[in-house]
Amino acid sequence: MTKFITKFVKDESGATAIEYGLIAALIAVVIISAVTAMGTSMKAKFNSVAVAMGGTAGA
Fold first, then answer.
1. What CA–CA distance (Å, rounded) separates 54 from 21?
2. Residue 59 belongs to a domain
3. Is 7 exposed, middle or buried (CB count within 10 Å of its CB: 0-12, 13-18, 19+)?
4. What is the pLDDT of residue 18?
5. What is the pTM of this model?
6. Is 43 part of any domain?
7. Residue 1, Cα to own-chain centre: how many angstroms?
């Protein structure tokens, strides 16, 4: 029983998996934020072009 507990305490594979999961989640948040910001910027630019061409800006 003590061998099992010692082996369980020294095992770090679960911690490594959690760390990789956190890194992947952080990367996903950064990508989503960047795409959202870029989409908002592009929407504003297309609306200004549409207004300059005599149309109306979209919602």
1. 49
2. no
3. exposed
4. 87
5. 0.59
6. yes
7. 43
Question: Would 37 be classed as within a structural domain?
Answer: yes
Write the single-letter amino acid at 8: F
Question: Residue 11 is part of which domain span?
Answer: 1-53
Q: Tokens 């959690």: give the residue.
A: 18
For residue 55, what are its two tokens?
């149309």
Question: Could you identify the residue written with the tokens 């504003």?
Answer: 44
Residue 58 covered by a domain: no
Hey, what amino acid is at 56?
A: T
Name the amino acid, one letter, at 54: G
Number of separate domains in the chain:
1
pLDDT per position as a tens digit, 1-27: 788 778 777 777 777 888 999 999 999
